[in-house]
C-alpha cells in the first residue's frame, strides 16, 4: 500500500513558507520522536537550506518513544551543520521552557529590541506544532485537534524576550518516496483518514513491532508472539478484546483501529519505528534499486539501438 496525502492547502502553505523564509532567522522543525526521519519533510529541508537558515529540530512526543533510540537520533542530528536537536514533550511546560534558549544559541546575533529573533515553526500534520505554540505563549493561540491538518493558515505571533513566532500549517510532501514512510506516518496519525486503510496500516505496524518490540505486544495483549505475523497479531487483539462479527469471524477492522490507538496513545509502551541505522539501510537499498533500474533501462536502450542498427545495415544506401 502506497500512501499519498497532499491536500490543496498544503501546496499553498509551501509557497507562503518559501516566501516568508527570506525574513526568518531560524526554523524550528517539530518531528515525531517515534519516526524522526520519516516525519522530516524534505520540502522544509529544501526551503531552509536554500536560504541557509539554521534549524532547531524538536523531537516531540519523546515520552512515547524509545529513549535509547531517541538519543541516537539526537546525536545523528547534532552532527549536522547548523542543526541542534532536542527531545521533549510539548505537553510539559518545563520541556517547552528550554526552547527559547536553544533557539537563541543558533542565532546569537538576534534577540534584541532592534533585532528580534524571528522563528518559523514547521512540521508535518499532527506532530504538535500548535501545542508547542500555545505552550510557548502560555495561552491558546492555535487550534489543537486529534485529526491532522487542523492549522490551515500562517500566523505571526509575538513572544516575550524579543522573539517572533511564525506558525505554519502542517505540510506533507507531494510524493512519499518510500512506502514504509507513508505507513509509519499513517500509523502515527499524520495522514488524513480518507487516505488510508486502517487494516493495512495496522498490519504493517504489527509486523514492525514483531521485529522491534515483541515483548511489548506480549505484555499488552497476553499472547506469545513466536511464529506470528502482522495479521495474526491484529487477529490476536480481536480475540483478546472479544471483537467478533455476526457469525463468529474476527472483527478485523475494529481490532485494527484499537491496535493503532494503543500505539498512538502510548498504551503499548515506548516505541520508535526507525533508527539511524535502519534509515541508512533503507536509503542504501533504495539507491541500489535506482541503480539496477537505471542499468536495466540502459541495457534495453542499447539493445534497441543495436536492433535498429542491424535493420539499417541491410537497407540500400
Brief characterization of the structure:
The longest helix has 38 residues.
What secondary-structure arrangement, pairings included, does this model have?
Layout: H1 8-20, E1 26-32, H2 42-50, E2 55-60, H3 67-78, E3 83-87, H4 93-96, H5 99-106, E4 117-123, H6 129-137, E5 155-159, E6 163-167, H7 179-187, H8 198-212, H9 214-221, H10 230-241, H11 252-265, H12 276-313
Parallel strand pairs: 1-2, 1-4, 2-3, 4-6
Antiparallel strand pairs: 5-6
Helix pairs in contact: 7-8, 8-9, 8-10, 8-11, 10-11
Tell me about this structure.
It is a single chain. The chain has 317 residues and is α/β, with parallel strands linked by helices. It is 48% helix and 11% strand. α8 (198-212) crosses α9 (214-221), α8 (198-212) crosses α11 (252-265) and α10 packs across α11 (252-265). A 6-stranded mixed β-sheet has the order 3-2-1-4-6-5, sandwiched between helices.
Can you give keywords for this protein?
48% helix; flat; 6 strands; 317 residues; alpha/beta
Dominant shape: flat
Q: What is the chain-wise order of helices and strands?
A: HEHEHEHHEHEEHHHHHH
How far from one another are the termini?
Answer: 54 Å
Low-confidence stretches: 144-152
What's the gyration radius in Å?
Answer: 23 Å
Amino acid at each position: 500500500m502506497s500512501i499519498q496525502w497532499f491536500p490543496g492547502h498544503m501546496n499553498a502553505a509551501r509557497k507562503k513558507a518559501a516566501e516568508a523564509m527570506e525574513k526568518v532567522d531560524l526554523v524550528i522543525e517539530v518531528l515525531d520522536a517515534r519516526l524522526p526521519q520519516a516525519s522530516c519533510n524534505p520540502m522544509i529541508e529544501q526551503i531552509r537550506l536554500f536560504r541557509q537558515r539554521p534549524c532547531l529540530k524538536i523531537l516531540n512526543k519523546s515520552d512515547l518513544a524509545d529513549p535509547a533510540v531517541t538519543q541516537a537520533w539526537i546525536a545523528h542530528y547534532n552532527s549536522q551543520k547548523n542543526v541542534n536537536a532536542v527531545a521533549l514533550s510539548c505537553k510539559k511546560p518545563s520541556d517547552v521552557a528550554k526552547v527559547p534558549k536553544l533557539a537563541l544559541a543558533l542565532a546569537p546575533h538576534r534577540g534584541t529590541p532592534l533585532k528580534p529573533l524571528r522563528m518559523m515553526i514547521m512540521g508535518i500534520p499532527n506532530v504538535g506544532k500548535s501545542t508547542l505554540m500555545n505552550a510557548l505563549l502560555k495561552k491558546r493561540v492555535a487550534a489543537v485537534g486529534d485529526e491532522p491538518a487542523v492549522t490551515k493558515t500562517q500566523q505571526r505571533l509575538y513572544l516575550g524576550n524579543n522573539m517572533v513566532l511564525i506558525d505554519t500549517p502542517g505540510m506533507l510532501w507531494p510524493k512519499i518516496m518510500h512506502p514504509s514512510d507513508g505507513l509509519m506516518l499513517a500509523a502515527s496519525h499524520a495522514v488524513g483518514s480518507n487516505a488510508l486503510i486502517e487494516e493495512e496500516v495496522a498490519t504493517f505496524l504489527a509486523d514492525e513491532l514483531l521485529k522491534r518490540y515483541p515483548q511489548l505486544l506480549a505484555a499488552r495483549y497476553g499472547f506469545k508472539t513466536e511464529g506470528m505475523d502482522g495479521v495474526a497479531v491484529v487477529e490476536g487483539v480481536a480475540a483478546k478484546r472479544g471483537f467478533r462479527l455476526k457469525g463468529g469471524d474476527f472483527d478485523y477492522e475494529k481490532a485494527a483501529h484499537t491496535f493503532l490507538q494503543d500505539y498512538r496513545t502510548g498504551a503499548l509502551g515506548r516505541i520508535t519505528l526507525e533508527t539511524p541505522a535502519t534509515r541508512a539501510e533503507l536509503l542504501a537499498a533504495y539507491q541500489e534499486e535506482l541503480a539496477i533500474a537505471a542499468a536495466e533501462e540502459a541495457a534495453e536502450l542499447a539493445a534497441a539501438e543495436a536492433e535498429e542498427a542491424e535493420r539499417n545495415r541491410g537497407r540500400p544506401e
